[in-house]
């Protein structure tokens, strides 16, 4: 980054953290909504922070027109305060008292989807991280926690529903067709958890009784047309509530739990106290319009937001550098929940796929940052895979190092000690240390050092002494925040396989952890280089390393094909069986890269897969994943010296060989497997559909003649969205132009009234690899159903194209890059957060050699324009 002064001035550092000089104990809002203009009166009960007394009170506000300011009922005059940019400074010496302000702004013109804005038939808010300052002058920081009461007033016909956090205290009619409601939230909370909704909404209800007997009214608010898509969210919420009682001993604490579905939303959902606001894509579901993945996403996101009620709301973050305190922990909690509700192995495979193909790339790129970053310009840019997913891996490692009981003791301690407080990641780790008498000071490097550690392992078998030695070295490439990394504390869950399966572990110079069953243990790697010796090993073993992906690292062990096949066949850890299959796929792709004409795919691998399909001893969903060749992004990381289009082509070849060799079995599965089963959305049914549709797609890739008929038959007869979309996808791959075009058209006509299905239809087409991809994309943006103001639509086309359409985005002319750059600049004018996310693929330029130069040029072209803070930070860092 060119260290210009403005950037320096705008950068906020963790090391500069200080407590606020005033607290706000109570917040009384009066929000008066009229079309085109909303007035907000705020009464804030101010209390000086004794340790920092005698400094002026400085509030933040953005885009507010200020009409009135008073202290304890007395209007302030000219010399008493100053408004400069986004800050309001009160010069009066303040003791405890009430500050009143009145402001106005126009939600209808707020396209940033932050603060109070309008979406279709409703007004709604989004305050995390710093949106509350667009509603009123405030100490908009998470360590200022306040009790909120909110009065909302609006037109009764336009906005029959008026909601805010907590309990409804009072509601009534006013003259002129207006009405009001008053809400009171008894729990102290930071401003980022404030929410308000006013609009014309229908409501679907449910109920739950907590363990201690508190009845909770569940209310899901949606547009009337979506009333038939609420049941799954309500059921998921009830399951999540019961699970959190069982697993963490945590109960819900209010009488009402409200969820509102909003079509225009930058993220997945938001955990506002008692009033969650959800992107429609993460809450609405029914079997006709929603895929299996969609159902599982709704279940996971509903649970995630619910779990925040404790990990985030009751115990919140001291400052935004601690974001992973709530997000990493809550992602870990929702992953545990999904694993319990569905299949643990499948959930782990899905999460590891995301880590390996997306989080690792983030950690290897110019925007790499620590899970607890040391600085930022715009905090919205830090809602990342690193803070969320890698943050969850950190909690997972801690949980595994502690074991179930000690981890529960730690979380009990954490929630009871810090209830009602705004705390730090250090406090979280301290709670872990409290419960297990371990020292996690080295472990905490996971929070401060960015980058994916690389662990290289070698082994030595001494047949005379019957000892087996595993030697580890760890390293981590420099990342912007740290040049030289200190060693990480890395748990290595492992076992040893012999010819007939697991070997008993006899550690020579280290202690087995308590829960070891003798064939499995967790080694704790803490040095840059470290060896572990096992004794009484009577045959040359194959090591099964990092079982269940026990740490977010890149593992390098020089496995032979035969060893990988042994792992695939015999490992007691299903996750590692899948992982071995992926590794064999990587080997095959690399062979195809090296020798495009005469490469071979291990027949032993293909045979092992064939046996696995036949035996059906592994759950179908896992088999489906075993049949999937890793993503281009992951393959690219494994063969960085090769061009991305060559990798794409090599991958296609391997997919074809795989499909051809398993053609008979795949055909049986695709046409007959579970085909007439009644439609259900339990994990087992979902897994069977996944296997059937994976088989269909493989046949399509292989160009097997029967695939076309199979796909078309399934497309027409499907009684659920999963099967119909999978068939359509297969038809696209087969690409018999008339049939495919017709099916796409038919699909649109069938579903054009369902916005979320239309988004899937957009995505499918944005991902079609072809020379005409860009033209097609351009045309789709002209489609009447497309809207630039709706983030879901923009992501459905633009993010899918630039992240998934390898040949389209990376086409030789550079037109894909240019197109994305133009889009980013355009979107930045209305929605900076969205723009800063869309630009991500260009920031990865360094991976792309020649092509990377063109990508970088496009980034530079973006950076030369006047930009939002959000986009400025991302482009500057990416160009550094
Ligand atoms: N806190 C939300 C979650 O992870 C995400 C979010 C962040 C939503 C910022 C909106 C704005 O559950
Ligand atoms: Zn979250």
Strand-helix topology:
Layout: H1 5-10, E1 12-13, E2 22-34, E3 37-48, E4 57-60, E5 65-71, E6 74-75, E7 81-84, E8 87-90, E9 97-105, E10 115-119, E11 122-126, E12 145-155, E13 161-164, E14 167-173, E15 178-190, E16 196-199, E17 202-209, E18 215-222, H2 231-248, E19 256-262, E20 269-270, E21 275-279, H3 292-307, E22 316-317, H4 323-341, H5 344-364, E23 375-376, H6 385-402, H7 404-418, E24 422-423, H8 425-436, H9 445-448, E25 454-462, E26 467-475, E27 490-498, E28 501-502, E29 521-525, E30 529-534, E31 542-544, E32 554-557, H10 561-570, H11 574-594, H12 603-615, H13 620-626, H14 632-638, H15 644-661, H16 663-672, H17 683-702, H18 705-717, H19 721-734, H20 737-751, H21 755-766, H22 773-781, H23 791-804, H24 806-809, H25 815-830, H26 832-838, H27 840-843, H28 849-863, H29 869-879
Parallel strand pairs: 2-12, 18-19, 19-21, 22-24, 25-32
Antiparallel strand pairs: 1-23, 2-3, 3-9, 4-8, 5-6, 5-9, 7-8, 10-11, 11-16, 12-15, 13-16, 14-15, 17-18, 20-21, 25-26, 26-30, 27-28, 27-29, 27-31
Helix pairs in contact: 2-3, 3-4, 4-5, 4-6, 5-6, 5-14, 6-7, 7-8, 10-11, 10-12, 11-13, 11-15, 13-17, 15-17, 16-17, 17-18, 17-19, 18-19, 19-20, 20-21, 21-23, 25-26, 25-28, 26-29, 28-29
The structure holds phenylalanine (PHE) and zinc ion.
């Amino acid at each position: 980054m060119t260290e210009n002064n403005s950037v320096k001035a705008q950068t906020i550092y963790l090391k500069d953290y200080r407590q606020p000089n005033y607290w706000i104990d109570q917040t009384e809002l009066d929000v008066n909504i009229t079309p085109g203009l909303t007035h907000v009166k705020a009464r804030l009960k101010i209390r000086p922070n004794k340790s920092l007394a005698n400094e002026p009170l400085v509030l933040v506000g953005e885009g507010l027109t200020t009409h009135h300011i008073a202290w304890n009922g007395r209007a302030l005059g000219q010399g008493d305060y100053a408004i400069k940019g986004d800050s309001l400074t009160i010069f009066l010496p303040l003791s405890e008292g009430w500050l009143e302000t009145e402001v106005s702004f126009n939600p209808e013109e707020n396209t940033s989807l932050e603060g109070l804005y309008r979406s279709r038939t409703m007004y709604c808010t989004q305050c995390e991280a710093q949106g509350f300052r667009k509603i009123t002058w405030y100490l908009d920081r998470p360590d200022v926690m306040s009790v909120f009461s909110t009065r909302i007033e609006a037109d009764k016909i336009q906005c029959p529903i008026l909601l805010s956090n907590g309990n409804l205290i009072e509601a009534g009619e006013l003259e002129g067709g207006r009405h009001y409601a008053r809400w009171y939230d008894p729990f102290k909370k930071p401003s980022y958890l404030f929410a308000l909704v006013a609009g014309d909404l229908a409501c679907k209800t449910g109920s739950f009784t907590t363990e201690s007997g508190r009845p909770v009214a569940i209310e899901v608010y949606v547009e009337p047309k979506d009333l038939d898509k609420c049941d799954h969210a309500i059921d998921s919420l009830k399951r999540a509530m019961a699970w959190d009682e069982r697993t963490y001993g945590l109960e819900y604490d209010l009488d009402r739990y409200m969820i509102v579905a909003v079509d225009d939303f930058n993220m997945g959902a938001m955990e506002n106290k008692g009033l969650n606001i959800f992107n429609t894509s993460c809450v609405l579901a029914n079997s006709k319009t929603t895929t299996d993945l969609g159902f599982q996403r709704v279940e996971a996101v509903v649970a995630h937001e619910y779990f925040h009620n404790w990990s985030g709301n009751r115990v919140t973050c001291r400052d935004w550098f601690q974001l992973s305190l709530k997000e990493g922990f809550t992602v870990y909690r929702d992953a545990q929940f999904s694993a319990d509700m569905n299949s643990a192995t499948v959930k782990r495979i899905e999460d590891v796929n995301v880590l390996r193909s997306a989080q690792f790339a983030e950690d290897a790129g110019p925007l790499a940052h620590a899970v607890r970053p040391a600085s930022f310009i715009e905090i919205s840019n830090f809602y990342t895979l690193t803070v969320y997913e890698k943050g969850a891996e950190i909690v997972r490692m801690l949980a595994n190092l502690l074991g179930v009981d000690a981890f529960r003791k730690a979380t009990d301690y954490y929630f009871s000690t810090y209830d009602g407080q705004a705390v730090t990641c250090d406090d979280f780790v301290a709670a872990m240390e409290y419960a297990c008498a371990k020292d996690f000071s080295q472990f905490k490097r996971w929070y401060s050092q960015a980058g994916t550690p690389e662990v290289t392992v070698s082994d030595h078998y001494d047949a005379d002494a019957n000892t087996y030695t595993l030697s580890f070295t760890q390293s981590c490439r420099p990342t912007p925040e740290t040049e030289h990394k200190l060693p990480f504390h890395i748990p290595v869950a492992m076992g040893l396989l012999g010819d007939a399966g697991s070997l008993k572990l006899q550690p020579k110079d280290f202690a087995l952890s308590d829960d070891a069953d003798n064939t499995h243990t967790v080694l704790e790697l803490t040095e840059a280089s470290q060896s572990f010796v096992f004794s009484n090993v009577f045959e040359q073993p194959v090591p099964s390393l990092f079982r269940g992906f026990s740490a977010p690292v890149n593992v390098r062990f020089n496995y032979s094909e035969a060893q990988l096949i042994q792992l695939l066949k015999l490992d007691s850890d299903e996750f590692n069986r899948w992982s071995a299959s992926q590794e064999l796929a990587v080997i095959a792709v690399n062979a195809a890269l090296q020798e495009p004409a005469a490469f071979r795919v291990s027949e032993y691998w293909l045979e092992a897969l064939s046996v696995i399909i036949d035996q059906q001893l592994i759950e179908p969903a896992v088999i489906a994943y075993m049949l999937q060749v890793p993503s281009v992004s992951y393959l690219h990381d494994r063969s960085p010296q090769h061009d991305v289009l060559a990798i794409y082509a090599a991958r296609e070849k391997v997919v074809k060989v795989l499909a051809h060799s398993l053609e008979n079995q795949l055909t049986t599965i695709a046409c007959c497997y579970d085909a007439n089963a009644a439609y259900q959305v339990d994990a087992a049914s979902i897994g069977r559909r996944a296997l059937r549709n994976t088989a269909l797609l493989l046949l399509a890739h292989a160009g097997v003649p029967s695939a076309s008929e199979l796909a078309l038959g399934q497309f027409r007869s499907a009684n659920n969205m999963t099967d119909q979309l999978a068939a359509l996808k297969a038809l696209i791959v087969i690409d018999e132009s008339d049939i495919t075009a017709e099916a796409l058209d038919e699909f649109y006509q069938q579903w054009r009234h369902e916005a979320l299905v239309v988004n899937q239809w957009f995505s499918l087409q944005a991902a079609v690899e072809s020379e005409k991809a860009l033209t097609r994309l351009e045309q789709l943006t002209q489609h009447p159903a497309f809207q630039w103001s709706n983030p879901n639509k923009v992501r459905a086309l633009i993010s899918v194209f630039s992240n998934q359409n390898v040949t389209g985005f990376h086409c030789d002319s550079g037109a894909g890059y240019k197109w994305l750059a133009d889009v980013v600049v355009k979107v930045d004018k209305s929605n900076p957060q969205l723009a800063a996310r869309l630009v991500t693929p260009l920031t990865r330029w360094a991976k792309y050699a020649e092509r990377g130069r063109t990508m970088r040029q496009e980034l530079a072209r973006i950076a030369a324009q006047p930009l939002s803070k959000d986009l400025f930070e991302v482009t500057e860092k990416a160009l550094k």
